[in-house]
Amino acid sequence: MRELVVLGTASQVPTRTRNHNGYFLRWDEQGFLFDPGEGTQRQMTLAGVSATDITRICVTHFHGDHCFGLPGVLSRLALDGVGHPVTCHYPASGREDFARLRWLWPDYAEKVLREEPAQGDRAILADEPFGTLAAVRLDHGIEAYGYRLTEPDGRRMLPDRLAAMGLSGPAVGELQRLGAIEHDSRTVTLGEVSVLRPGQSVAFVMDTRLCDGVYELAAGVDLLIIESTFLAADAALAAEHGHLTAGQAARVAAECGARALVLTHFSQRYQDPAAFEREARAQYDGELHVAEDLMRVPVAKRRP
To answer: Is 139 a catalytic residue?
Structure first.
């Protein structure tokens, strides 16, 4: 299963209906926890997300609404006896901040946690069979990064072509492994009986002004999770504080060809979520979600 579980959608100040930030991306056997703000541990319980589901924690920057839930989450990992490695990504300039937030469980942290900070304008943090995790610098005043998970392209086998070649059973598996096999006195290549199946991708873009990094992260993604702290009437305030409006976020999604858009990280000054949808719809006509706490958003099926 591949889905986004929204744990919290507020920005600096939580409200009665919106917890601080928190986002869990379930990606087959991997579980990515992004920006665990205060109260994330409780939200995980309400959403049915187990501590054992977490394999990586990604922090975009060290403002409190994006990281003050870390001590609780790390404590939960320890209390639940999570034994597999949990890799933590964050801006390299925040090493001391991360160290303060994890001090409660030093022995456990040494045994289980792995730290791989991001640095430079862009960094490849993982290149695994499940996909490539990249970090790209954003523009927020303090060092901040967005994250993008990209699955490798694969191949979709074509049954009619396999049948025409007389291929079935173990021979098909061998062809997939080797790329070419000898069959009926001829060489059959994988390209003859399959087509490219583009991998899926998800981008996570939090606190930032518009910058090149936003567009780089969002380019062609299947699911774009992006902050929209302000509405257009407060665009000057958004720029001053290093944030996006709903219209700006939606325009990025449209220009970059994002298949689905999740708006989140809303200022407490706004009481009407529909206003964000109206503003975004003026720019973007794809699948749109105005995030609510505990919402679940499936990753769109692979492109044909």
So the answer is: no
